[in-house]
Amino acid sequence: MSYSIYQVELPENPEAIAFVNGFLARDRAGLIWMWKNLLWIKNTTATADGCVQLKAGICAANEVLMVSYWRSPQSLQAFFKGKFHRQMMQFVAKHPESLCLYNETYQPTASGKYSHEPQGMATIYG
């Protein structure tokens, strides 16, 4: 089996960011809300202005992790201020103990490695 591994050339000051966020249901209400809304959250985020790609994974029956790639921190901030994110956070405001939420952002400092088709940062800088 033969395939090529490649890297992409990043600009000197890349603006794109990777956003890692997770949901951990802490009780039955959180678990039901998470599974009821997960596909909607994934689709709403993936189609948001500035989101280039989103990957979602199930870590456990009560935990989901999403990684999304954004053209800029400003586009991610605009999403946070928008109506869909407010809708997502309404449950958390009403049930603060039901979900553990976490998120981190990363700007690339070096190219990743890719094969076959572009994924992640390569969809922006490839």
Walkthrough of the structure:
By secondary structure, the protein is α+β, with helices and mostly antiparallel strands. The chain contains four helices and six strands; from the N terminus they run ββαββααββα. Strands 3-4-2-5 form a four-stranded antiparallel sheet.
> Based on helices, strands and strand pairing, what is the structural class?
alpha+beta
* Widest beta sheet: strand line-up: 3-4-2-5
Main sheet attributes: strand count, strand direction, barrel closure: 4 strands, antiparallel
pLDDT < 50 stretches = none
Radius of gyration: 16 Å
Number of helical stretches of at least 4 residues: 4
What is the helix/strand order?
EEHEEHHEEH
How much helix is in the residues?
A: 25-40%
Based on Cα principal axes, name the global outline.
globular
Number of strands: 6
Mean pLDDT: 94
CATH topology assignment of one domain: Alpha-Beta Plaits
Features:
single chain, 126 residues, alpha+beta, Alpha-Beta Plaits, four-stranded antiparallel β-sheet, two-stranded antiparallel ribbon, Monooxy_af470
Give a quick precis of the structure.
With 126 residues, the protein is an alpha+beta fold. It has 4 helices and 6 strands.
Summarize the topology:
Blueprint: E1 5-6, E2 17-25, H1 28-46, E3 51-60, E4 63-70, H2 73-81, H3 83-94, E5 99-106, E6 114-115, H4 122-125
Antiparallel strand pairs: 1-6, 2-4, 2-5, 3-4
